[in-house]
Amino acid sequence: MKDISAGPLGKKKTWYQVFWRYRVLTLMCIPAILFFFFFSYMPMPGIWVAFVDYKYRKGVFGSPFVGLRNFEFLAQSGKLWTLTRNTILYNLAFIILGNLFAVFIAILLNEIQSRRFKKLSQTMMFLPYFISQVLVGILVFNLLNYDTGFVNEVLRALGKTPWQPYSSPGAWPVLMVIIYLWQQTGYNSVVYFASICGIDAEIIEAARVDGANAFQKIRYILLPMLKPTIVILLLFALGGIVKGNFGLFYNVIGQNPMLYDTTDIIETYVYRSTIADFNFSSASAVGLYQSIVGFVIVLCANGVIKKIEPDYSLF
Amino acid sequence: MKKVLAAFLITTMAASLAACGGQGGRTAPDGSGTETDAAVDGGAAASGDEAAAIDTSEHVVINYMVTGDPPEGEAKENLNRMMEELNGILTEKVNAELQIYYIPWTDWLANYNLTLAQMDGSVDLVGTASDWLDAWPNAKDGAFLELSENMLKTYAPKTWASVSPEHWELCKYNGEIYLMPEDNYAQWTNHGFIYRADWAKEAGLDEVKSWEDMTAYFAYVRKAYPDIMAWDSDGTAYGTLAGGWTASHSDFVAIDGITANALWGGTKSDPYTITVPQYDDTDMMVAFAKEMAKWDEMGVWSTDVLNKTTTANRDDYRIGKVAAEQHHTQTWTDLCSHTDNNKIYTDDSDAESGFFWFGEETGNVVRLSITHGAMAVSAASENPERALMVYDLIRNDPDCYRLFNYGIKGVSWDVNEDGLRITPEGYNPDTQNINGMTNYWWGRNDDLEIRDASRNWDVIEPMYEELDAAAIDYPYGQFVPDVDAIQAQINNVNEVYTNDMKLIAYGKFDDQGMTAEEAVQKLHDDLQKAGIETVTEELQRQFDELYK
Q1: Would B488 disulfide with which of A73, B295, B333, B385, CB 3.0-4.6 Å?
Q2: Is residue B169 located within the same domain as residue B218?
Q3: Span A113-161, pLDDT tens digits
């Protein structure tokens, strides 16, 4: 902002001079500005619903104010800690492993020489991303269930004892991460692959002339060049670290309480307890709680990055 | 720059406030206040039984909201043919036509409530129920229109006259009528197990009369018919099983409509003191847990039953692929009858279906609440008067009633020489069963019903008599609990109950390294922590206010 509003002679320009100077750029931003205005700012006062006893006919602002009562049930459940812990740990695993794998795959794709094989493998890895979570849930059930699951059929055929994942909570942190990676890695790697493609070919050429081997090229050129992308994607992801992946967990775990200890996240818990009385207010209260925690985490993470490497911070 | 930002933010906030305000303004007049009053005035003016004075000059479409999957293909065409005929009559009589707005069975309760919450006038008549479709919470949240006496007298005079004043009392919340009850239709919806009586006889059981008999029956079926699944349950019957066990081992009478799992209630001997047997009576629950662990061990249901949300058990029962179905008497009257759908009877001439009802051991059964099915009018309806007029016709007019419930005479149904209802030659149950498409469970009327000839009345009538002799009337019809202050506790109670009871009712606690005693103790402790006692106290306070 500073370098924009300061003129070439250091004389401060008024906002409309700045606006006029960058009118074309501003014009190009209008769709994005309108989008955020209508879909992010306009609904904001609706947060109020988290503080009222919502009655359909009275509307959000006409319903009686009840203070923090809608937040009570989550606090009283005694589950807040387990739920927040599960949500954050899963998301950490998803974010860290997800990005590591994505970078890894992007680099591998970049090293593939055959064009056709490159396209083919990219498409194959991309496909799971388009499968609905509902189908993922069914696929997993058909693979793993005890009576007729594929895995257990194979185990039985081999004369081994069948495996009962749907009664073993301990198995799921690993399984969920595997399912997530299977589904998301192909998609995530596209961004990294794109930024690798954006790296100036001359640099890589120069390295090759200097005798760098493939590993040195990755270590000293690709990875450092990918750093800003990695940091920005991490920052974006951190903002949602208390927002669980409802679709995945709800469809894969379903309503099996045997697995809740290790798989219940804030979303699934809230869904189960508010679906019974259809309470918009409690659900919104939880959403607000998640947003505030997410906001604080992003601010902290951004602050830390700003200290270490100011260029990479978001704001 | 800062100023610009500030100005921008302020505009944003103002604009969005205005937007929300606008929405509120739009929905309010639709339902409450002015329009209702106008309707009442109109009613008062017209109540000099000059029905012709009602202005029906404008042709309107009334949307009837119902739970059920919309028919497709040929079935849909048949439905449309019936609707055309019905709408002809409705147009002629009240210048309105009816359309069906389906809430499909997948996530039905959530979608049902969501549709009501939209308040955009997309539905007019709402099929609802106090025990399974959140009628009271929706009335409280303002989703339903208050039906004044004048409105009912003017626009639904036959319905008004056919429901007794005592029954109208049971449809009131805060002194206002919200529901039109299905109070003239004999049906039993007490739950139990439907089983193969022929196999029970093979097992040496004359009849299944208790849970222990059921255990013996399942044990026999598992041994004698290893290819047949005993009961392909999904993971949702835990509450029914626990409630069924409670009914069979106490004189507990549950209060409907607090949560889906009816935990609170009184007893037959002391109806107005609230107890929660599943929480208090740990001995009874330990016995339950042990029995269910036996079932799980035997393989009555699939190992991963808790991950199943839906199965085709009932259809499988019809074709002899499973040995039991858990549902209510009304469903049994279908399954025990030799209809085209029930192939077991044509495949095996010995086949018979018996019914073990929960509470049979102690004779503990309660008659259906009259609001188990009821019609409400959406508060957002643009034509509540016409909606009432249409309802009055489909509930009381023989032609409309039979069209809507049975379909076109000669195509979907007919009457035989004994005056019983039969299906005509060439009838296809998959595409011509109009009853299964209109799902009219909110005002069926025994005065207009024609007995179904395919029903196995020889066994059904004795069952009705048996139930009738044992049953008491639902004692809490007038109790509409105000749960606002205890909703947080109820949600939490419901959550821990669901989680812990699933393990107990499906005998899965041993997989978690618990004994039956420990599992029941855990349920008790978790319920206590979740605040069950606070809820019980508050309900007792409201009970005392109403009944003392």
Answers
A1: A73
A2: no
A3: 899 999 999 899 999 999 999 999 999 999 999 988 999 999 999 999 9
* Residue B301 banded pLDDT, cuts 50, 70, 90: very high
- Greater confidence (B72 vs B47) lies with B72
pLDDT (0 to 100) of residue B383: 94
Note whether B294 and B241 are same-domain residues: yes
A83, A73, A181: which is closest to B493 by C-alpha?
Answer: A73
* Interchain CB distance below 8 Å, A42 and B492: no
Give the total number of structural domains in chain B.
Answer: 2
Chain A CA closest to residue B22: A59
Taking 80 as the threshold, does the pLDDT of residue A251 lie above it?
yes
pLDDT digits (tens, 9 = 90+) for B354-408: 999 999 999 999 988 889 899 999 999 999 999 999 999 999 999 999 999 999 9
CA B266 vs. chain centroid, Å, equals 22
The ipTM is 0.76
Same domain, B262 and B114: no
Parallel, antiparallel or unpaired: strands B60-67 and B125-128: parallel
Question: Given the DSSP bridges, would you call strands B96-103 and B265-267 parallel, antiparallel or unpaired?
Answer: unpaired
pTM over 0.90: no
Query: Does any domain span residue B359?
Result: yes
Domain of B135 in residue numbering reads as 32-186+372-406
Chain A positions in Cβ-Cβ contact with residue B502 (cut-off 8 Å): 255-258
Q: Both ends of chain B: CA-CA distance in Å? A: 68
Pick from B27, B304, B523, B527 the residue to mutate for testing the A interface (most A CBs within 10 Å): B304
Tell whether B159 and B241 lie within a shared domain. Answer: no
Residue A255 has φ and ψ, to the nearest 5°, of -115, 45
| CATH code of the domain made up of A56-312 | 1.10.3720.10
Say whether B176 sits in a helix, a strand or coil: strand
Q: How many CB pairs under 8 A join A and B?
A: 161
Ordered by start, the domain boundaries in chain A are 2-42, 56-312
**Residue B114: closest C-alpha in chain A:** A278
Same domain, B145 and B217: no
- Is the same domain home to B254 and B109? no
B80 and B38 belong to one structural domain: yes
- Residue A123, C-beta contacts closer than 8 angstroms, at least 6 positions apart: none
Half-sphere exposure of A6 (CA within 13 A, CB side): 5
Question: Which positions ≥6 away from A217 have C-beta within 8 Å?
Answer: A204, A207, A208
Is the Cβ pair A258, B512 closer than 8 Å? yes
CATH number at residue B210: 3.40.190.10
Binned at pLDDT 50, 70 and 90, residue B8 comes out as low
CA distance A43 to A225: 39
**DSSP secondary structure string, A18-60?**
HHHHTHHHHHHHHHHHHHHIIIIITTGGGGGGGGB---TTTHH
Q: What's residue A200's pLDDT?
A: 87
Residues B50, B123, single domain; the answer is yes
Q: Is A142 on the interface with B (CB under 8 A)?
A: no
